[in-house]
Amino acid sequence: MKPDEPDRRLRTPLEGSGRRPWDPQAVIAAPLQLHQTPVLPEWVDYNGHMSESCYLLAFGDSSDAFFRLIGIDETYRDVGGHSFYTVETHLHNLREVALAAPLRLSLQLLDMDDKRLHLFHAMRHGDTGELLATAEQMLVHVNMQQGRAAPILPTIHQHLRSVFLAHAVLPRPAQAGSSIGIRRKPAGT
Which of 23, 34, 36, 147 could be cross-linked to 65 through a Cys-Cys bond (beta carbons 3.0 to 4.6 Å apart)? Predict the structure, then answer.
C-alpha cells in the first residue's frame, strides 16, 4: 500500500480496541455470547438476503471478540509475533437473513490442545432466537516469524483451558463434525 492510498484492508468491528483484562474469578458463560450485529447493507447480495461470504465475516467477528476475551489483540500479533490462523471451516446456512435483521452469535470451545482450537459458532435471530447458521472451525496457533505452528503461550493457554472446562458441560452441537456429500437413497428404494 502506498502512503497516499486509502487503507482498504478488511477490519473487524473490534480492531484497535485492545483485549479485555482477564478476570480469573469471573463466571464463563457456556456458550459465550460476545458479538451482536444487524445485517449491514453491504452484506446483502443480488438475491436480497445476506451473502454467503458475510456469514463467515460475522462468525469471524465473533472469533475476534473471543480472542480479545482470552487476551489476544494486535499487540499479541504485532509485538509477540503470534496469532491463530483458521485451517478449516464448515458453514451450515440454515435460513435466509434479510437486511437489518438482528444477529446474535454464540461461541463454544469444543476442544483444544497445545497448538489448536476447535470452535463452534451459532448465529441466531436476535429477536426470535431462530437458528440461522452455524460454523465449525479448526484454528492453529502460529509463530508468524517462523511461519509455522507453535505452542499456545502459557497465559493464553490457561485462559483457554478455563473456557474449555466451562464449555465441557454443553452438549455437542448436531452440526459439529458433519461432512459434506450428496446423500443417495439405497438402490431399490
Answer: 34
Given the candidates 3.30.420.130, 3.10.129.10, 3.40.190.10, 3.40.50.9100, the CATH classification of the domain at 32-167 is 3.10.129.10
CA distance linking residue 84 with residue 72, whole number of Å: 9
* Nearest-angstrom CA–CA distance, 62 and 69: 11
Q: What is the pLDDT of residues 44-83, one digit of tens each?
A: 999 999 999 999 999 999 999 999 999 999 999 999 999 9
What is residue 8's predicted lDDT score, i.e. its pLDDT? 78
Give the C-alpha separation, 40 to 79, whole Å: 33
CB 103 within 8 A of CB 119: no
Task: Please state the pTM of the whole predicted model.
Answer: 0.91
Locate 8 and state its grid cell: 482498504
Q: E strand or H helix at 137, and its extent?
A: strand 131-143
